Amino acid sequence: MEFNLVDDDWIPVVLTDGTPVEVSLRGVLTRAGEVRSLALDAPSQIPPVMRLLLAVLHRALQGPTGEKQWVSWWEAGAFDAEMVETYLDEHRSRFGLFDAQSPFMQVGGLEALNGKTKTAALLLPHIASGNNVPLFSAERDDRPVALSAAEAARWLLHAHAWDTAAIKTGAVGDDQAVKGKTLSNPVGSLGQLGVVMPMGPTLWHSLMCNLLPLTNSESVRTDLPVWEHPPLSTQWSERAPKGRLELFTWPARRIRMIPEPDPERPEQFVVRQVVVCGGDRLSLETGQSLRAWMRSEPHSAWKRSSNLEKKRNFPLVYWPVRHQVERQLWRGLGPLLARAEPTTASGVRDAPTFQGPAVLSQLGSKARMTALRGMPLRILAVGFEYGNQSAVINEAYGDVLPLPVVVLSAQSDEWRHAVLDTVRATAAAVHALAKLAENLAVASGCRPSEEGLLAGHRERARETAYAALDAPFRRWLSSLAEGDADIDQTLDLWANEARTIIRARAGTLLNAASPSAWHGHETEDGQVMDASLAEIYFHSALHKALHELLAPEDGPDDLEPSTP
C-alpha cells in the first residue's frame, strides 16, 4: 500500500508552456523553474503546500544563512538538485502516506475512543460532514466522498492548517482526553492568520521570494520539520514553536487516513474514512509565547493589542491581522506595507501599531530589490472566517494582488507612502459617494433617525463603487512595476481615473433619484435637503478626497448642480 510523496505524483501544477500535470515532491523542487504555478483544489491549499516545500528547501540547502547566500542561489537560477535529492532520499521513509508505522503527518494505527471513523469529507471544509453543513452542499455523510491518494495528501495538509476548532474525538492512548473527547481545540495552525505570500512568474521565483534567512544558530539546530522529529503519537502538547520550520509543518491534528482499493482501478487506493483527533497547540497564553509566535511566523501582518498587553501583563504584544472577507486586499494595504521591526520591551512607547509580514519586508532589502527589479510580483492572500466559536467555516477569503517590489523598498518610503495615500484618498472618495446616497435618501423622505435604511443606501453605494474601481486600481498598481515613473504624475493619473469612475456612479444615483428628491424634504433639525444640495456636497467632498493626488493644473470638480 505504497504512496510516497517524494516520488509519486500528487501536486497539480501548470508548466510554463501551459501544460497541466501532476508532479512529485522531488519533481516539483528540481523542476521548479519549469512550473508556472500550483494548480491545487482550492486557494487555501497553496499556503500549506508552499510551506512544506519551503521547509524541505531550508533543510536540504541548509540556508539561506543570509542575503549573500540568497543572492548566490538567485544567480544560479535553480535549486541545487543534488542537495535536494540527497535530502529527500535520506528522509523518504517519513513521506509514505499510508505507512503502517509512521504515515506522513499522521499517527499509525490511530483509533478513536468511540471506535468510530468519519467520512473523508471531514478533511474538506466545503463538503458537509457532521455538524459542519455548508450552504448548498450536495454531499452528505451517507454518500462519502472518495479521495485519491494525491487528493488525500493535499487535504491532509489543509486540515492541519485550517481545520475548525472546538471538540474533537478523543484518541485511544491520549491521556488528556476527557470523557472520550479533547476539548477547547483551536483552529489549525493558519486559522488565526490572514495569510499573505509573494508569488513570482514561476514556482522557483515564488519559493525564492519566500525563503528567508535562517540566522539564529540555536534555532537552526533545534527548529526541525515534523518528519525530522520522532513519528507522531496520540500524545499532544501545547508549546511555542522552536522556529519557522516547525511552524511550517505544525501537526495541529492527529489524523489517520484509511485507504482502500479503488473499485475502478484496483491497483490504486482511495480514502473514504478518516480518524481526526486533537493535535499540538500553539502556546499563546504568555507574552513571551506570543512574541515567539510572531518571530516565527513570516506570512501574516500583526497589530498591536493593548487588551492582550494588559491581559498577559506583558509589554508590546501583537496579534495577527486577518483578512476581511468583504474587502478586496488592496483596500487593506496599510498593515501589509508596514515594516516588520524587531520588538523589544524598551521600545514600547514608540512601537508601531502594525508590523508587516516578515516575508514582504525582506523583499525590500537592497539585495532582493536589485534581483527582483522589474519582475511581476503578485501577493496571494488566503484566510477563513470562522463562526459559532470557530467550530464552522462561514466564509473563505482569497485574492491575488499585483504589488510592484518598489513599494516594499527598505531604502525609500516614497512609493510605499504614495500607494497608501492613494488607498486612503480612494476610500475618502467612496465615502463621498456613500454620503451622496444617504443625502438622496433623506431628500426623498427617509428620516435621519432611520439609520438602518440609510446604512443600506451607503453600503450599496460603496459596494458598487469598489466593484467599479477594483480592476482599474489593480492595473494602476501593476503600472508601478519599474518604479522609474514620476510619482506626482502617477498619482494624478489615478486621481483622475478614480474621479471619473466615482462621478459616473454619482450620475447613476442622481438619475435614479425620485422627483420628490429634487423638491427636497425638511430634516428633523429643520434643514431642507434636496438632490441639488446633495450633489453640491458630493462634489465638494470628492474634490477634498482627491485634491492632494491631483496635479496643480487640475481644477476642482464642477460644482454646478444637475437638473432633474
Overview of this structure, please?
The structure is a single chain. This protein is α+β, with helices and mostly antiparallel strands. It is built from 18 helices and 19 strands. The strands form 7 sheets. Strands 4, 5, 10 and 11 form a 4-stranded antiparallel β-sheet that branches. A hairpin with a 4-residue loop joins strand 1 (11-15) and strand 2. Helix 2 packs across helix 4 (81-90), helix 14 runs antiparallel to helix 15 (451-478) and helix 14 runs antiparallel to helix 18 (531-546). It is globular.
Shape: globular
Range of strand content: 15-25%
Number of strands: 19
Overall pLDDT: 91
Helix content: 25-40%
What would you call the quaternary organization? Answer: single chain
Count the DSSP helices: 18
Q: How far apart lie the N and C ends?
A: 76 Å
User: What structural class do helix, strand and pairing data support?
Assistant: alpha+beta
For the largest beta-sheet, the strand count, sense and barrel status come to: 4 strands, antiparallel
Q: Uncertain runs with pLDDT below 50, 5 residues or more?
A: 558-564
Using the CA coordinates, give the radius of gyration: 27 Å
